[in-house]
Amino acid sequence: MAPNEPRLRKGDKVQLGYPYLDELDIILKRAIWIKLTIPCLPDFDLSSNRRRTRHVMAQMRDTKTEMERAYVYLLQAMQECSNGAQLAAVLDAEGPWSLHWTLHFPKGERARDWDNCVPALKVWQDAMVGLRLGWFPGDSPRYIPTGSVTVVPNSPEGPSMSLVIIGTASVE
Q1: How far is CA 45 from CA 132, 135, 166, in A?
Q2: For the stretch 155-169, what's the b/e string if a residue is b when 16 or more beta carbons lie within 10 angstroms of its beta carbon?
Q3: Per-residue b/e over 56-84, b at no fewer than 16 CB within 10 Å?
Q4: CA dihedral in degrees (116, 120, 121, 127; nearest 10)?
Q5: Low-confidence ranges of the chain (pLDDT < 50)
Q6: Cα 126–Cα 128–Cα 131 angle in degrees, nearest 5
Q7: Any idea what the CATH number is for the domain that residue 91 is in?
Q8: Does 21 map to a domain?
Q9: Rg for the chain, CA atoms, rounded
């Protein structure tokens, strides 16, 4: 550090082009999250690299089947969640929410690129929004503005995926 540069002390306010750090601290204290573990991977036939030789009705049938599968596994993950109160708090949060997926590919199975996983996970996100689960009011950027996909090849946990849902708690 140069001798003429000001030193920051605890409690100093620093503006980063975003809210002041004390306001950011309030935002971070309001963040609540839950992690769900799902014992399978999505159907990669629905990825953007799939062959387009199939009839559109067959593709719609595959999407519907994957939606039902997503519904069952998400419901199971919700029931197996060790902290039901935390899950309820996240899903009852005022929003917006953030979805962070981690896909664990077992040894010997070809791990997909993260950008090819996004279309396959769209059906899973739609299952959370739809009339069946109704976890979120919608999946537009107003409700779910951010998310991420992380691919873990040769994972001892695979094949599985985990979903971290981050919500914003209401201030009382």
Answers
A1: 23, 26, 28
A2: beebebbbbbbbbbe
A3: eeeeeebbeebbebbbebbeebbeebeee
A4: 170
A5: 1, 8, 13-27
A6: 85
A7: 3.30.1330.70
A8: no
A9: 20
3-class state of residue 16 by DSSP: coil
- Cα separation, 19 vs 159, whole angstroms: 40
**Residues 99-144: tens digit of each pLDDT:** 999 999 998 888 788 888 888 899 999 999 876 788 888 888 888 8
Q: For residue 20, is it within any domain?
A: no
Helix axes 56-80, 114-129, angle to 10 degrees: 70
Domain that holds residue 78: 30-168
Q: In the structure encoding, which two tokens stand for residue 131, read together? A: 């009339």
- The domain tally of the chain equals 1
CB 139 within 8 A of CB 92: no
> How far is Cα 142 from Cα 151, in angstroms, rounded to an integer?
26
The answer to whether residue 18 sits within a structural domain is no
Cα–Cα distance measured from residue 95 to residue 106, given in angstroms and rounded to the nearest whole number: 34
Asked whether residue 15 is domain-assigned, the answer is no
Cα–Cα distance, 116 to 132 (Å, whole number): 26
Tokens of 61: 């049938």
